[in-house]
Structure formats: C-alpha cells, structure tokens
Amino acid sequence: MSVQPPVLLEAVRINQIGEKRTFSLAPDAEARRAIAKWLKILDLPRFEAELTLVPARTGWHLSGKLTGQAIQACGLTLEPIEETIDDSFGMDFVEADEASDASEVEVILDEDSPDIITDGRIDVSRHVLEHLSLALDPFPRKPGAVFEPPEETAEISPFAVLKGHVKPRADTDD
Q1: Which site in 46, 76, 102, 118 is 20 to 30 Å from 156, CA atoms measured?
Q2: How much is the pTM?
C-alpha cells in the first residue's frame, strides 16, 4: 500500500486565477510528518513555499521558491544527516484540447512541454511536493563516510572446482 501525498492546498480552478494568485505555504508539524513519510525521509523540521500562478501566453505559469530543512538517512551509515532545501522552479500548464480523442494519449518527453490540465484545475500541492522531492539529495552521504567492501570469506564455494581454484578431492574408499 503506497502512501498518498498530503494535500497542502486545494486544487486551483483556472477560472479563478484572474491576473495573479500567490500562495504562501508553511505546513504545520503534522503535515510535515506526513510529507516526510510520503518522501520516505526521516524528518522535515522546516518547510515553506512561496508560489505564484499567473496566466501565460498560452495557458498558465506556476513558479515557486522552496526552503526548509530535511533529515535523511546516510546511504552508507544510516545515520541522520541534515540537508538544507533552497530551490526554485517554474512550470507551464495548458488545457487539454477538448477536440482531441480522449482515447489517444500523446507522450512528449520534453521537460519544457507544459503539463496538461484535464479537469479545469491545477493541483498546486502535487507540483510543490514533486519539486520538493526533486530538490532532495537522492544519495545522501554523511561527510567522511566511505564505502568499505566486505572482506572475502574463506569459505570454499562448491563451484570453485569449476573455476580451477581448488583441486578436486580424491574419493577414498576404505
């Protein structure tokens, strides 16, 4: 069972954006715990987001500034390490072409292509959390932590004979 991302803001109806909508997010401790659980990190002691949603030449543009502190487990030692979050993002949205066939989905693998709005709403929370997850270090490592490969075991593998590392045993009959 996967954990659903928490809702920080209700989805914004595009007909209610007007000339400009701004949002300031500062989730409380319970919401930050839910975000940390969804991100699979140890803790999110501080998180804020400043967002602006404006009409664009074609569609709408969402820009945001994310700041905060996250605590992740070191990938080598599993010890907690603190990470500072300071990231900005921007993304465009366009309405789905109602004239197009809904059974056909065109996938464009271009990071500059706009997201499609299908129900007249923009889920700002989802995009904030998506960009927060991208702002985190995917391989956190405590300073000075070094990978130590495990020592070779002295145990002889049953396949060592095939490799030529061990001479075959002579069967002895008593």
Answers
A1: 76
A2: 0.73
b/e map 84-123, b = 16+ CB within 10 Å = ebebebebebeeeeeeeeeeeeeeeeeeeebbebeeeebb
Give the domain range for residue 63: 12-163
- How many independent structural domains does the chain possess? 1
CA 56-21-129 angle, to 5 degrees, is: 90
Can you state the angle between helices 29-39 and 124-135, rounded to 10 degrees? 60
Q: Report residue 164's pLDDT band, with 50, 70 and 90 as the boundaries.
A: low
What CA–CA distances, in Å, run from 67 to 9, 43, 119, 136?
17, 14, 30, 11
Within-domain flag for 131:
yes
- 62 assigned to some structural domain: yes
- What distances in angstroms separate CA 52 from CA 5, 56, 65, one per listed residue? 21, 12, 9
**Residue 169 in domain:** no
pLDDT (tens digit per residue) in 16-68: 888 899 999 999 999 999 999 999 999 999 999 999 999 988 899 999 999 99
Report DSSP state, residue 164: T
